Amino acid sequence: MAPAFDLVCLSHLRWDFVFQRPQHLLTRCARERRVFFIEEPETDPGPARLVVGTRPEGVTVVTPHLRPGLDAEATALLLRALLDDFFREQHIARYALWYYTPMALGFTRHLAPLATIYDCMDELSAFRGAPPALRELERDLFSRADLVFTGGQSLFEAKHGRHHSVHLFPSSVDTAHFAQARTHAGDPPDQAPIPGPRLGFFGVIDERLDIELVDGIAAARPDWQLVMVGPVVKIDPADLPRRPNIHYLGSKQYTELPAYLSGWDVALMPFARNEATRFISPTKTPEYLAAGKPVVSTSIRDVVRPYGERGLVRIADTVAETVAAVEASLAEDANARLVECDGFLSSMSWDRTWRRMHSLIQDVVEQRVPSSTVTGLANRTAPLEREATSLTASISAGEEPDSTIAGRL
Asked: Which CATH entry fits the domain spanning 175-345: 3.40.50.2000, 2.130.10.10, 3.30.390.30, 3.30.70.360?
């Protein structure tokens, strides 16, 4: 049996933003061990600090706060000093590091984990505003990682030749949660006044959305209502199409999504076909299907394979194709579709995905611990500790943020 260890996750995503792959997996991990979710820094004029809090899912969320204007080197060294202090306070000595962003290597490469995992859920370098250093840091992370997980088939194909232990873990689903949409009675207050038929989308509204397609569908069929649920990020809200039959309802909690889905006639995935969507594997695909909704999507590779090929999702890229696909969806035999979808989803669950991931991590830890003398912070080199401590002291002396940790548990 592997020894007890903590899991420390380094993420570019906020825990409280949208409940998606990291939240599904790490919530399950937190049932059996301590999980610390380290977010990217926020900026404010106060002293440098870590704001720490425990979420209902059992995960401890750690958000660094730094003064704006620090350069990359000072930011990395200050984050390292803050994190070192936090590890000592929380007695984090045996741990695995779980990366969602290679950018976190700038302040964690000195750590000595029992296992290093890279859960590659997106091709981050293709996203708008991606840091120039991201590709190089990903190469570094590949050289350090014991395990690489990918969130879809396309990412697996792109990454499997770069590491000796790459494993495909495509988006899964909490079927019971979304199946509530099949029996839910009543609309949420902001959706209730919207007439039907309704075409719905939930998710982050950003550069991956084909806003011209959305506008074209709404223009072609003004009798259809497009319901858009989710936060708008990285694009100007003023650039979104505005028509009487397009309704932006904003962010919703994960627990609320089945209630919105229940009132839709068709679920849409109108993704643009660009570099940012080349490797995506939308988690919403099986979630829409579990909710019992017919789905129409653009030709995203990880939707076409397997969902489109198996006839579970209709694929359409143009306005005319999408209108025809929606019309077919509205006229179809729902019972036959539900039988097919339920059979396909029966082998998919986040519980199963996490068990498989956990087994791989345990194997790494069990192989390493007997012969390893590394126990975490106690084995870091003295020069590294002195460098981080010296930087913190010099920043404090120069009226830069100090390294006091606030918001402790």
From this structure: 3.40.50.2000
